[in-house]
Structure formats: structure tokens, C-alpha cells
Design brief:
235 residues; alpha/beta; Rossmann fold; Arc Repressor Mutant, subunit A; 42% helix
Length: 235
């Protein structure tokens, strides 16, 4: 799972990250709810661990996420003396909580519960117009014929498909492709999009990726596309 840790105590955050990494989870640590909201708002995560043991309001963070239509599960980690804040956060839309301190095995068990639920609910197959995108097998087919994509091209398609109908920024692409490790210049996203768009056009005969100038890219079913004077069809 890809897990965002919203920490309010760096030592605790580092320990949770280390514990989760031993179970092959990919973690991203940020300091405080404001940074957590900025990261979660525009990036894909399977689970958010939110540290309630600090001065900042976690309930406000959860409420902002839910108002932004972000449904990523939130698991609260809280000392017993912060249970009033836990109740507020649960009322705002958090999914569950555990009290601190928590043993590594118990933390991993709780995360595994969320992983099982997420696996049952996840969309492994996306259809969009003539495109059939198999997320589990990482395959794209058009009219039953496989379309060859490079690894990076499929990752681009995956993010666009999962967020179809909404704008994906270049920063979101970089985070999805490189996960915070070495990142090239933003211009490389235009190159990947250009190649992906050409392959989709060649296979399906239609344009699925719209450029939103100054913002990013959006994926639509061509049959539902409404032209916009602010949009262009080339990267």
C-alpha cells in the first residue's frame, strides 16, 4: 500500500515509517495536517495515518479532505488523552483509530485490515470509450487488440484513467511516476503525454487526453467531450 503519514512528532513518524517499510508498504511522511492536506489533495494514497498527538487539529484536516471529495481511508493514531479530538475527527469522516503506544505487530495488523478492504473495493478494470484498461495486469486493449505501452506510459494512463474527468497536474504525474525520488524537469511530462496520445489515437482513432493550459491534462470519453476555448488537443 501507498501510505501517507501525517505526523506531529517526527520521531513517531519515522518509527511508523520504518515499521511499515518492513512490510513492503510505501510511505510518505509530512509534518502537520496542513502539509498532509496539500499532499493528499493532489496525490493518490491507499491509506492516511494521522497523528492526533500534537497541537494541530486533525479533525479540521479530515473535514477538509472530505469536503474536497477525497475518500482515502484515514486511520487515527492517538494518545488516550486526545480522545475528544479523535471523536471530532471520526465525526468529520475519519475511518477508525488506535490508541498509542502501539506495538509494531498491532500497527501492521490494522494496516493489513485496510489493505484487504481496499483490495476488495479497488477498481482493477477501467473502460473508457474504446479503451479497456486492466490495472492489475497493466494492459491496454482497444477492440480486443493489445496496445503496447512502456512502463511510464502505462503509469501515465493509469493516473489519468483513475482520475478521469478531473485535471491531473504535472506535479501529480511526477509524484505518481517517481514517488518523491529523483524527478526530471516538468517538461518530460509533456513528452510522455505526446507519445501516449499518439498511441491512443493510432489504436482508437480518437483523442482521449485534453490539455488544460496552465494546469495539466484531463482524460475524457471523446463521446462526452465538450470543446472549450481554454483547451487544446496537443501538448
Amino acid at each position: 500500500m501507498r501510505i501517507l503519514i501525517v505526523e506531529q512528532d517526527p520521531a513517531r513518524g519515522r518509527q511508523w515509517s520504518a515499521d511499515l517499510s518492513t512490510a513492503a508498504h510505501d510511505t510518505v511522511n509530512v509534518m502537520g495536517p496542513d502539509a498532509g492536506y496539500a499532499r493528499a489533495r493532489y496525490n493518490e494514497f491507499d491509506l492516511i495515518l494521522a497523528d492526533v498527538g500534537g497541537p494541530a487539529s486533525v479533525s479540521d484536516f479530515v473535514q477538509r479532505l472530505r469536503l474536497a471529495k477525497n475518500r482515502t481511508p484515514v486511520l487515527l493514531l492517538s494518545p488516550t488523552d486526545r480522545l475528544v479530538e479523535v471523536v471530532r475527527a471520526l465525526s468529520a469522516g475519519a475511518d477508525d483509530y488506535v490508541t498509542l503506544p502501539i506495538a509494531r505487530a498491532d500497527l501492521l495488523a490494522r494496516v493489513d485490515e485496510f489493505a484487504r478492504v481496499a483490495g476488495a473495493r479497488s477498481r482493477q478494470f477501467v473502460r473508457l470509450g474504446k479503451l479497456a484498461i486492466d490495472l492489475e495486469r497493466r494492459r491496454l486493449e482497444v477492440n480486443g487488440e493489445r496496445v503496447h505501452l512502456t512502463g511510464k506510459e502505462f503509469q501515465m494512463l493509469e493516473l489519468l484513467a483513475l482520475k478521469k474527468g478531473t485535471t491531473v497536474t504535472k506535479e501529480m504525474f511526477l509524484d505518481h511516476l517517481y514517488g518523491g525520488a529523483y524527478e526530471p524537469v516538468l517538461k518530460i511530462i509533456d513528452v510522455f503525454i505526446c507519445k501516449l496520445r499518439k498511441k491512443l489515437m493510432a489504436a482508437a482513432g480518437e483523442n482521449y487526453i485534453e490539455t488544460i493550459w496552465g494546469r495539466g491534462y484531463i482524460m475524457r470519453d471523446p463521446a462526452e467531450h465538450i470543446p472549450s476555448v481554454r483547451s487544446r488537443l496537443s501538448a
